[in-house]
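Example (one chain per record):
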Amino acid sequence: MSQHYYSRKPEVQHDRRTLSAVLRGRTFRFTSDAGVFSKGDVDYGSRALIEAMEIPDGSSVLDVGCGYGPIGLAAAHLAPKGIVTMLDINSRAVELARENAKLNGISNVKILESDIFSAVAGQTFDIILTNPPIRAGKAVVHRIFEEAYEHLNENGALWVVIQKKQGAPSAAARLEELFGEVKEIGKDKGYRILKAEKMTQ
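Predicted structure:
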């Protein structure tokens, strides 16, 4: 398959569908399409991260690799006085995420097409969330971790969901090198939720 969900401009034929998911007690509706990640339903890893993540109201939040929007829109719902910036390299996913924000009546979001952090150069956030694109390769995943550190405010936190069999141990090791301490917040069907805080120097 030459077209991946992390392709910049998917050329696969459209196959739009609407799905619903209960996330943090709220029913969301999402439009998805061919050429984006987990088009048939909100994937288990994203659901596990959404149920575990702590988003204090008023936080500035960044969702890296937002797809059609479930993680970032759930975060925006949890922090109505905050702002959630959502990034994806996939132009089709970005369009869908914008559509889904409107569909769910969520306005405290900014949704940008971005190669990892390129669209938010120089900006920092209280919380960064990612269900990283494992199929893009370990180098890309670790680059997300490295650049996340630079884009966090002091005492900010990076939340990551990753499957044990898809590299959770090496991901945790790299996060420990960058952040010093990594907390495993939860385990769910082989998925691990990791939280790394950028402590005041």
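Caption: The radius of gyration is 16 Å.
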